[in-house]
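Consider the tokenized backbone below.
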């Protein structure tokens, strides 16, 4: 093979290995995705710290001595349960409910229906055997519900929810269920829009966190002052 042929063959091989550029335009993103940016991770850590601080604050509110049995502490526990975050505060809620039950003495000294009912409902939802006899104070001498309750919409809504935790043979709660249902239905059309929606939501679906009516009837009720055994 001549020298000329060898040179031509070599040039042909070199040309075959050469890749032609497609002449693409530069990316509009530049190299921003080539470098790691931990801004999002930093923000998440900051949010977690804030969340932990808020959780600790709620725990302190629940455990702050002395344990209050008034409406404020009861509403806090109720709000936590309704929001579905009670698993963060199980110990604190259990301790608070235990002390509330120990201070109950089987009666309700508060004349505010909502406070008595909310305390009753929360205790039953947490398995405590509390009697509905404490509500007899809200009946008149003829055995009818006190006239003042007819216009206490918030109290009636709370009482309606509590009636769904009745056990067999509790005549007061059976009467209260019929009474609150009738009063809330008749008052619904007279209420402003927010209150109307709240009453309807209450009637359509009572708060049944913990014990349901069917489960309550199946429970063995132990002696007064002890917790229910499931």
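A designed sequence for it:
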């Amino acid at each position: 093979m001549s020298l000329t042929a060898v040179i031509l063959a070599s040039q042909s091989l070199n040309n075959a290995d050469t890749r032609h550029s497609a002449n693409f335009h530069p990316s509009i993103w530049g190299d921003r995705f080539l470098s790691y940016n931990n801004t999002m991770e930093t923000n998440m850590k900051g949010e977690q710290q804030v969340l932990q601080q808020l959780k600790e604050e709620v725990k302190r509110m629940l455990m702050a001595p002395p344990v209050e049995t008034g409406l404020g502490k009861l509403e806090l526990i109720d709000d936590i349960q309704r929001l579905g975050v009670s698993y963060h505060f199980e110990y604190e809620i259990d301790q608070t409910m235990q002390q509330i039950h120990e201070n109950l003495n089987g009666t309700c000294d508060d004349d505010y229906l909502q406070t008595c009912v909310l305390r009753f409902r929360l205790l039953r939802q947490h398995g405590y055997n509390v009697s509905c006899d404490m509500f007899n104070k809200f009946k008149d001498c003829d055995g009818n519900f006190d006239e003042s309750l007819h216009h206490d919409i918030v109290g009636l809504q709370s009482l309606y929810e509590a009636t769904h935790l009745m056990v067999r043979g509790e005549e007061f709660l059976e009467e209260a269920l019929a009474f609150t249902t009738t009063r809330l239905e008749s008052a619904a059309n007279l209420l402003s829009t927010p209150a109307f929606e709240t009453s309807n939501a209450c009637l359509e679906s009572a708060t049944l966190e913990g014990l349901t009516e069917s489960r309550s009837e199946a429970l063995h009720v132990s002696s007064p002052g002890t917790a229910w055994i499931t």
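The two ends are 101 Å apart (CA to CA).
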